[in-house]
Specification:
The structure is a single chain. The chain has a single domain, classed as Jelly Rolls. It is about 20% helix and about 30% strand. The protein has three helices and eleven strands; from the N terminus they run βαβααβββββββββ. The strands form three sheets. A seven-stranded mixed β-sheet has the order 1-2-3-8-5-6-9, covered by helices on one side. Strands 4-7 form a two-stranded antiparallel sheet. The chain has a two-stranded antiparallel ribbon with strand order 10-11. The longest helix has 18 residues. The two termini are about 25 Å apart. The C terminus is likely disordered.
Length: about 140
């Protein structure tokens, strides 16, 4: 896995990246490249950024300090995962189509990836419970 990160506080970066990698491992997304969006235009364009759309390797886009994402103008379905401060999974949304706004008040970061080919033609899946205790109180079990 290769990582791209533009932030300047090294200790914070290392913890944040460890949290992202922990969540990616729980999800089974370890083979993807992590790209951290910590600049305004990176966050605004998200998965729609031309430099990301041109990638020929699987990647996961991480949004630190984020509790809500949009899928406006999104041409393909994406998987969205809200994570907590320790990299634990709070909510997993699979196959989210364009024109949606998702939020999770207890999240400290978000991971996104293109929905895999085998799931692209299915309608947007409901929230999938995740591992651990979520911000909303309940015990979640990943299914």
């Amino acid at each position: 896995m290769r990582q791209i990160d533009c932030a300047h506080d090294r200790a914070y970066d290392e913890k944040r990246q460890a949290d992202f990698y922990r969540a990616m491992t729980l999800l089974g997304w370890e083979r993807a490249e992590l790209v951290v969006a910590d600049r305004f235009f990176q966050r605004l364009l998200g998965m729609g950024a031309p430099v990301l759309r041109a990638k020929d390797v699987p990647f996961v886009l991480g949004f630190p300090g984020c509790r809500a994402v949009h899928t406006m103008l999104m041409g393909r379905r994406i998987d969205v995962v809200f994570i907590d401060a320790s990299g634990g999974l709070i909510e997993v949304h699979e196959g989210v189509g364009g024109g949606r706004l998702l939020s999770c008040p207890g999240a400290t970061a978000v991971l996104e990836r293109w929905t895999p080919q085998q799931h692209r033609d299915q309608p947007g899946a409901p929230v999938r419970p995740a591992v651990g205790r979520g911000a909303r109180g309940g015990l979640y079990i990943r299914v």
